[in-house]
Amino acid sequence: AQSVTQPDIHITVSEGASLELRCNYSYGATPYLFWYVQSPGQGLQLLLKYFSGDTLVQGIKGFEAEFKRSQSSFNLRKPSVHWSDAAEYFCAVGARGYQKVTFGTGTKLQVIP
Amino acid sequence: GAVVSQHPSWVICKSGTSVKIECRSLDFQATTMFWYRQFPKQSLMLMATSNEGSKATYEQGVEKDKFLINHASLTLSTLTVTSAHPEDSSFYICSARLSNSNQPQHFGDGTRLSIL
Q1: A16-31: buried (b, 16+ CB within 10 Å) or exposed (e) per residue?
Q2: DSSP β-ladder status, A44-50 and A32-38
Q3: Nearest chain A CA: its distance from B109 CA (Å)
Q4: How many CB atoms lie within 10 A of CB A82?
């Protein structure tokens, strides 16, 4: 069965600082990987996805993520965080030809001035 | 593109009533839609997978008679919470996936359900 671990429940960074959110997955083959962002009381917005090819994936809002098969990781990064990035971030894994996507428990990002 | 609309965004009702939530894909056809439940400060838990023209597939532990799902067209799926009770209060989110493709799910904005 597929699973996702986001080890950091809550992260605080200063505006302008760099950000890395960790995600580790468990899946028997090459998975589909996603990062979503959720603002309070709202649905989820797709930031980026990895299906195949280049392991460094660029997304919206200046985010990127790198798929590292050897580490079973798909960490999300941003070089300079903006106050508007404060939200909850969910990593997710899906099987190829997938129906179901499994979400991690989320990382809440707080941005301080 | 790939917009998913969910309605209503917030509903308050009395215990014992039934509540219907709609999920529409506005600019694409969705063979498959998914219904999730999210408790405060927790992740999304998949409740069921809804396939157009067929019965929904429910996850283990989800009462199919309690949470009725209908997916009558390629752009609309509904979730009806029957005889709702306070413990059914939660944030319900739907998502839809483009037909016949390995594309990511696109999410609605969710429905906040409060049962008094």
Answers
A1: eeebebbbbbebeeeb
A2: antiparallel
A3: 4
A4: 12
**Cis geometry, peptide bond prior to residue B8 (ω within 30 degrees of 0):** yes
CA gyration radius, chain B: 13
Range A11-23 average pLDDT = 97
The CA distance from B68 to B84, in Å, is 12
Residue numbers of B between 49 and 68 with CB closer than 8 Å to A: 49
Question: Cβ(A93)–Cβ(A67) under 8 Å?
Answer: no
Q: Do A42 and B109 touch (CB under 8 A)?
A: yes
Are the beta carbons of A18 and A12 closer than 8 angstroms? no
pLDDT by residue, tens only, chain B of 116 residues = 678 999 999 999 999 999 999 999 998 888 889 999 988 778 889 999 988 888 899 999 999 999 999 988 889 999 999 999 999 999 999 999 876 566 778 889 899 999 99
Tell me the pairing of strands B10-13 and B111-115: parallel
What is the rounded distance in angstroms from the CA atom of residue A77 to the CA atom of residue A61? 11
Instruction: Find the angle CA(A66)-CA(A70)-CA(A72) to the nearest 5 degrees.
Output: 65
